[in-house]
Amino acid sequence: MKMYDGKYILAGLIVFIVLATFPVWFTHGKAAPPPELKLDTPVIAKMANKQCVLPKEEMITGHMKLLNDWRTQVVRDGKRMYVASDGKTYEMSLQNECMKCHSNKTLFCDKCHNYAGLQKDADPYCWNCHIAPKENK
Amino acid sequence: METGRRNFLKIGGLCTLGLGSLRLVDAIAKTEEPKFLLNVQALSAKRWAMAIDMKKCWEKGRPGCTDCTLACHSTHNVPDIGTQKEEIKWIWEEKYENVFPRQESGMEPEAIREKPFILLCNHCTNAPCTRVCPTKATFKRPDGITMMDFHRCIGCRYCMAACPYGARSFNFRDPRPFIKTELNTTFPTRERGVVEKCNFCEERLAAGKIPACVEACKCKALCFGDLEDPKSDVRKALASQFSIRRKPELGTEPGVYYVI
Amino acid sequence: MLERALTGSTRYKRLLGVLLVFMGLGFAAYLTQWNRGLTITGLSRDVSWGLYIAQFTFLVGVAASAVMVVLPYYLHDIKAFGKITILGEFLAIAACTMCALFVLVDMGKPMRLLNIFIYPTPNSILFWDVIVLNGYLLLNIFIGWNVLEAERKGTHYPNWVKPLIYLSIPWAVSIHTVTAFLYAGLPGRHYWLTAIMAARFLASAFCSGPALLIMLSYLVKKYSKFDPGKEAIDKLTTIMTYSMLISVFFVGLEFFTAFYSNIPGEMDSLKYLFIGLDGHHNLVPFMWLFAILAISGVVLLLNPNVRKNEKMLLAAAACVFFSMYIEKGVGLIVAGFIPNPLDQVHEYFPSLPEIMIALGIWATGFFILTVLYKIAISVKEEVA
């Protein structure tokens, strides 16, 4: 089989592969350490059973979906209470419930979002509207 | 080669379809116990409505009183942009000729012509804004409140063209630097590019509280309640006095009544 | 066939270059809007739609150019149109693209555009408008491209294209009707609340579309070896003349209803447009220009000698096109918001960045049009 314009195609392919794999080879061996999330807020310190609405692993992987479901329930269906699997009820509110315990947004939310390379102040854009708790920095 | 490519595309297409239907199976197979509940202390109604007794406002209120507006705007972090062009307001004052255009006789008592009337979203039963919204970002709740979903609004401003009462404001710019009242940290602000308006304090109703404007009015000119409940304050107020609504000829069925 | 767009005369490349400069300026202006929001426009709380939506509304009409050549050719077998159907279809592609861009730049949250499809809302006319406009765009791309490719190969176009061609005819009517319904169903906007809104849209579309097509055909004839043919232009002129008369008649109907009934709400917007309201008269000069252009166009077109004289015909087509542009692209949308629901007058005038963005989109449309016409003309020249 004859390849027309082979040198252009191959050169283009090589450039593409180099660019596409750029993040892999550029940071090779220099992976940033995963962030340690701080749970040492006053409210969490007072809790006997340090348990969020879902188990930790589920919160790490699924908090965005949970928040989105909460949003739908509150805004569109007018339901504001969430019953966790352990029977405890929570008010479904990022601003008024989540942040009551996690009052350290910069050391909790931001730390992981920055590590994941999410665009600062834009993604997730929760805080464009929701008001973050005051922190003593 | 030709048929090979076609077959590849066909099989590829079928596979994609198959993968897509997996989600459907997931959705059908899922059976969950109800995890989302209404707040126990929430106030509820079949049809929330408001009666505004302008006479009480003018006679008992001090001149220039803006308690209702202040209470609302500080409760909901409504910004003060400072220009007519980009003004954002949920509840405000206008003159009779503007609130009830084409209804003026020109011979009204001076008080009616000159005194301020209070305006807010009418939470119409047949709300034109919800009819035109292309994403259901503004929608009717079963209790009659015309609700805004700020997460979903695409900022097309069709609702502003549709509202016959001028109740809707658009965030032309980031509103946060313009919030002049003390920030209410329990309620969000808005983002640039979305439309906003009065929400009949649905967040306060959910917590068992009456709307902020009603609570703030010292002369009890604002009266809030269930229009379908004959024993409610609103029904009693409307049954004993003559009231009018804005632009009734449009068939929108406003939920805000004016006693003059 | 696309490669034909890559080669061409210096004039062709220079034209593309100029259009690219305007596109670049428009894009730069849009970046400021992206960063600072719609505050950079002249839009306000009371006049919440302006230049962008008005351009969109007018361009939906221009997209009708396609149906006015496709319908006579395929339904009435008028052979003269065979040569220029492609010009109509490619003009429709450019117009629909501009429509989509104008809606996009008008959005407060453009990154949420897909919400329209994620949460489809059949009771919203805007939802249907997005569907019919994109549908019309796709139809014209499929039809135009396949018919042109068949012509290049000297074969008949594939059979599956035929149903699409027939579908495109009622579809063209739907884009005007649905766009008119955007406005005509809103309570409390007196100027828009008129049952003949859709009819007005169709009439003005069927004159402004052919008018632009006549002017473009002239340019094509002048600068290429492809001649769209005198007969086709004559027939287009007839269509344009009747549609223009009907358009002007419809505007007259609005005046009659408003002023004979003497209902203030019906009269206010028209007063604002033509004589000013409460001391506000930003649009008065534009609307009188509309009146002069419209009457000149009608007077010119009614004269058979004018229709036969190429230069005079072009002048008449320009009168028709620009009068309809002012009526739809300047007056109609803004006047719907004046007076506002509280019977106050707050005027609107577009800002400089807003005008630059609009120019940029027009340049984008003409860029697409130039490239598509270049391809079509190369094929026509090659076949001939």
What's this entry about, in short?
In chain A, 45% of the residues lie in helices and 4% in strands.
How do the SSEs of chain B run, as a string of H and E?
A: HEEHHEHHEHEEHEEHHEHEE
Q: Could you describe the largest sheet of chain C, including whether it forms a barrel?
A: none
**End-to-end separation of chain C:** 16 Å
Strand content of chain C: under 5%
Overall pLDDT score of chain C: 93
- Please indicate the percent range of residues of chain B in DSSP E strands (runs of 2 or more): 5-15%
CATH fold-level name of chain B? Alpha-Beta Plaits
Largest interface, Cβ cutoff 8 Å:
B-C, 48 and 45 residues
Name the helicity range of chain B: 25-40%
Q: What is the N-to-C succession of helices and strands of chain C?
A: HHHHHHHHHHHHHH
Domain module tally of chain B: 1
Compute the CA-based radius of gyration of chain B: 23 Å
**Count of individual beta strands of chain C:** 0
Based on CA atoms alone, the radius of gyration of chain C comes out at: 21 Å
Structure description:
The complex is a heterotrimer of chains A (137), B (260) and C (384). With 137 residues, chain A is mostly helical. Chain A has one domain (6-128). Chain A contains six helices and two strands. Chain A has helices spanning 6-20, 22-26, 42-46, 56-77, 94-101, 109-115, and strands at 81-83, 89-91. In chain A, strands 1-2 form a two-stranded antiparallel ribbon. The mean pLDDT of chain A is 88. Chain B is an alpha+beta fold. Chain B has one domain (48-259): Alpha-Beta Plaits. Chain B contains ten helices and eleven strands. Chain B has a four-stranded mixed β-sheet. In chain B, strands 3-4 form a two-stranded antiparallel ribbon. With 384 residues, chain C is mainly alpha-helical. Chain C has two domains: 1-188 and 349-384, no CATH class; 190-199 and 238-340, no CATH class. Chain C is built from 14 helices and no strands. Chain C has helices at 10-36, 51-62, 65-75, 85-106, 115-118, 125-153, 161-184, 197-223, 230-261, 264-274, 284-302, 304-308, 310-336, 352-383. Strand 1 of chain A pairs antiparallel with strand 1 (36-37) of chain B.
